[in-house]
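ok trying again, last paste got cut off:
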Amino acid sequence: MPAPYSRDLRERVAEAVGSGASARAAAGRFGVSISTAIRWAQRLRAEGHVKARRMGGDRRSRLLEHREVVLGLLAKEPDLTLQEICDRLAARHGLTVGVTTLWRYLAGHKITLKKRVCTPPSKTAPT
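nice, full thing came through this time. structure:
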């Protein structure tokens, strides 16, 4: 992931725009995009600084508080598929999560659910 621009560059661009230069001129002078120059100038006016915000999104699982519920479902019915677990969580506990979210949560706890789709019998090998 790329690193944020330096604070010094942010301040110079925002101050250039604040001192009367157009965002287009400041962006060309300092080698950043026009929209970036506009955003930095707006942040300096609104918040009083141009510090970079945190990068990345929220990486906490919504299932952390519901560990007992998920593990209880698996203990009662170990042959549930991921979609069935999601459906049960939504119906019984009002917790709506995606299949990928559930998969990541279970993988993080070293719980695997191996399911095979029904396939037609093999013509070359006994099944």
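cool. The CA atoms of residues 75 and 113 lie 12 Å apart. The two ends are 48 Å apart (CA to CA).
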